[in-house]
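Dear support,

I submitted the protein below through the web form. The confirmation email said the job was done, but the results page showed an empty box. After a refresh the structure appeared. I'm attaching both so you can tell me whether what I see now is the final result or a partial one.
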Amino acid sequence: MGCAVAELKWDDMRVFLAVARAESLSGGARALRLDPATLGRRVSRLEDALGAVLFVKSPQGYALTSAGERLMSRAVEVETAIRGARDDASGTQEGLTGQIRIGAPDGCANYLLPQVCSAICAENPGLEVQIVALPRVFNLSKREADMAITVSPPSTGRLTSQHLTEYHLHLMASREYLRAHPITALDQVKDHPVIGYIPDLIFDAELDYVSEIGGPRAALASNSVSVQINWARSGAGLVIGHDFARPFAPELERVLPDQFSLKRSFYLVRHADDRNIPRLGRFAAELVARVPSEVARLEAR
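What the results page shows now:
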């Protein structure tokens, strides 16, 4: 397959990448705005040209074969080189332009990134930012996002990570709840409804806050930080919440802050191949400069 790869056109690579990332013809067709049948024929022609089967087709979708995995690595390198060349040609030194997609846990996506990204966009009118808030790990190799913010550095894959900032969490409850149910000691927490994550949907051990208080299983649970915060705002019980979210939830007060607190970190994760794309590097530098100060500003309030 090595000789044939050198003769491939970028359009062939685009077709292959779209199907590989979507893991289906229909998803790849949507990404390329093509008819699925047309895309299927092009995949078949590509496999014939290479003399290799690139996908295992099943009712569940298209999975890469070992030959497909090898081509994926080459295709991503070509894609990165083309994106870098386009950045150079578009004169991005005069300002950030184009579309950048960043993935983040929904607490960060809801309470930090909107104002940070708005400030970056205000200084770069040609920039379009998409924030994807999902309570799971992002697959940067499949280009679900150009970069991601995570609560743990990655341990596998061709990824680079940079410590972004620390943040703090405390027990919180609404003033109304605390007036009706005063709490004066940490061992009383077990007698109150606790709001937290759905246990089997916790995608990173750093998010298992409830276990830190040795408390009961969460009586009210969601995979969304915003839902947890809103439950607490309504007086439903106690939540271990981000201090940077409190300015957006004025009904909440910290509970026993001198007895219980947590400290966690955010990391900025990028695909290793993207280091040669100046536009992404400059956007990442803006995040590194702005996110810590925004956390500090909100926590101080």
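Response: this is the final, complete result; the empty box was a page-load delay. Residues 66-89 form the longest helix (24 residues).
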